[in-house]
Amino acid sequence: KNTDQLGIFDKAGKIYSYPLIEIPKDGVPVITLADFKDRVSLVFPVSENKKYLIAQNTGFGFIVSGENLITRMKAGKDMVTIANDGELFQPIPIEANEDIKDYRLALINTENKVLVYKLSEVNEIAKGKGITIFGGMSETNKIKDLKIIKDMKLSIEGKPTKGRSETLVFEGDN
């Protein structure tokens, strides 16, 4: 039996879910799946057997189990406390049975500063704002992208103010 759900976040940080198996093959308006209190922000597949990194561009984030993202009511449930002018990133799935101690979280902000640290430093909680995953965010400086690095290799390509394009590669515990 397929228990995967369609997870739906609204702009206020409320989560709604709907069984994927019940969605008709020709589609359905998302507004008919739940009693939304705010505009729909993003949709993503949810599995009870996974964990998810939930992060917002204002620098906050946390890890949550897939079970906590599944709602039984059309009214949904409060999940993320959205900071002022905050927007959620697409949740990143993590295999629940994997040991994440060797995983890294890489983030880049709008000032092109990169931060890489152990994913295990991010708290696992049931809901809320989370911890600061990238400090110093402001109205003009926000996280613009983030990735979980599983193979311990990160390549960053860019062009300095003067000079030719360069690629930096980080491997192992560097």
Structure commentary:
- With 174 residues, this protein is mainly beta.
- Helix content is 2%, strand content 40%.
- The protein has 1 helix and 13 strands; from the N terminus they run βββββαββββββββ.
- The protein is globular, with a radius of gyration of 18 Å.
- It starts with a strand and ends with a strand.
Please tag this protein with its features.
single chain, 174 residues, mainly beta, four-stranded antiparallel β-sheet, 1 helix, 13 strands, 2% helix, 40% strand
Write the layout of secondary structure elements.
Blueprint: E1 5-10, E2 14-19, E3 40-46, E4 50-55, E5 60-65, H1 66-69, E6 77-78, E7 92-95, E8 104-109, E9 114-118, E10 131-132, E11 143-149, E12 153-158, E13 166-171
Antiparallel strand pairs: 1-2, 1-3, 2-6, 4-5, 4-7, 5-10, 8-9, 8-11, 12-13
Q: What is the number of strand segments?
A: 13
End-to-end gap: 44 Å
Structural class per helix/strand content?
mainly beta
For the largest beta-sheet, the strand count, sense and barrel status come to: 4 strands, antiparallel
Task: Please compute the radius of gyration using only Cα atoms.
Answer: 18 Å
Please estimate the helix content: under 10%
Content of β-strand: 35-45%
Write the element-wise H/E pattern from the N-terminal end onward.
EEEEEHEEEEEEEE
Question: Helical stretch count?
Answer: 1
Strand order of the largest sheet: 3-1-2-6
Mean pLDDT: 86
- The shape, in one word, is globular
- Unreliable stretches (pLDDT < 50, length at least 5) are none
